[in-house]
Amino acid sequence: MPLPLGFTGARLDRADRLRTDPEAFAAAIADPRATCLLLDGIDPVPGSGGGLMWEALDPADERALLLLGIDDSGAPRFVREAHGGARVDARSRTVMRLLPMLSPEEAALYGGARSLVDWHARHRFCAVCGSPTELFRGGWGRRCASCGAEHFPRVDPVVIMLAEYEGRVLLGRQPGFPPGFFSALAGFVEPGESLEEAVARELFEEAGIAVSDVSYVASQPWPFPSSLMIGCRAVARGAALTIDTTELEAAMWVDRAEVRAALAGDMGASFMAPPPLAIARYLLEDWVA
Fold first, then answer.
1. Under a CB-based contact definition with an 8 Å cutoff, are residues 107 and 113 in contact?
2. Domain residues of the chain, as ranges?
3. Model pTM above 0.85
């Protein structure tokens, strides 16, 4: 099994006990070992060696500190809210150029911090009454001073799957993908459906195929802005495709030899494989194995 999955393996104690204890949280801020992740908006700032940049807590910086957790040495790790409460650019693609410079653990640390900062930037007003909200629980919640409603960071469940038929799997490409790039089909889980139902629905809506025997493979946090990618497989009942062109530009069935060539980066491969950080690549590697 190809491990670890991208954006997993942060090795931080999330320290929930500090989130609910104001005195312990203040002590963590006062800890001389405490550091803060340096971000440009929500993009990472690369260090001289290519990794993440951490800095000592600046008392002059009035932005709220969000607790990421405690590292193996016992040092508290923080990240700050976005500057001035301004809306952050969640569509910035600068991060894609910088992610390969990070170790798997750093990518996981950054992914959690990015999602948390982005959530705060988008939830400054109460969804119940519209009043401003205030940060609490060490940065893992916002509370409305007007109606008392409490709001907590959420992740959006997304199924991403390989449908298999007679030794081949189905891949697709969206119009915005780079030339030749194909990936696993994916879609958000809708209210009132199970993961298995979401897999079957998405495959039928996007590619017109009916499936059965849906099985779980692995999951991955995906911080763009905050999804949980739930990797699955399914068995297709036929190979005929009816593509929803509002979702996909193209789709095709590929066999193991084609997948191996793409994963190896062969120039003559029939498609370009997803990058190492993506669970779609994990699903392909797992299927080939």
1. no
2. 16-122, 156-288
3. yes
For domain 156-288, give the CATH number.
Answer: 3.90.79.10
**Cis ω for the linkage preceding 225 (within 30 of 0):** yes
- Which residue shows structure tokens 């932005």? 63
Instruction: Locate 88 and state its tokens.
Output: 């952050």
pLDDT in tens, the chain (289 residues): 445 799 999 999 999 999 999 999 999 999 999 999 999 889 999 887 779 999 999 999 999 999 999 999 999 999 999 876 555 666 667 788 889 889 999 999 999 999 999 999 999 999 999 999 999 999 999 999 999 999 999 999 999 999 999 999 999 999 999 999 999 999 999 999 999 999 999 999 999 999 999 999 999 999 999 999 999 999 999 999 999 999 999 999 999 999 999 999 999 999 999 999 999 999 999 999 9
